[in-house]
Write a structure and sequence with these properties.
The longest helix has about 35 residues. The protein contains three helices and no strands. With about 100 residues, the chain is mainly alpha-helical. It is elongated.
């Protein structure tokens, strides 16, 4: 795969993950217990924002720099892939928690 194609795929995945952060915020806001203790937001603030700051944003920055540095594109692709897997794991856990709360 060419460096330009990998860079575009990486930027697309990282941008989709950044948009997912906004979706997750809206989802947690609409499914949180109105008069609850707010622990639902811990799921948003801690793991999902950490994934955004430590995986997605560096992938976006390195993806842009990959136009000039070939190694930056490969590092950005690895960061985006790890962030994607981490988002899936955390999101699955969040959905299970909300399903558990709805059942009780």
């Amino acid at each position: 795969m060419s460096n330009a194609r990998l860079r575009l795929i990486t930027l697309g995945v990282a941008a989709a993950e950044a948009l997912f952060w906004f979706y997750a915020t809206d989802y947690i806001d609409s499914h949180a217990i109105p008069r609850g203790d707010g622990t639902e937001w811990v799921a948003m603030v801690v793991p999902i924002t950490t994934i955004l700051l430590c995986g997605v944003l560096p992938a976006l920055i390195l993806g842009v720099l990959g136009r000039w540095f070939a190694l930056a594109t490969k590092i950005a692709a690895a960061l985006a892939a790890v962030a994607l897997v981490a988002d899936v794991i955390v999101w699955t856990h969040i959905l299970a928690e909300f399903a558990h709360k709805a059942a009780h």
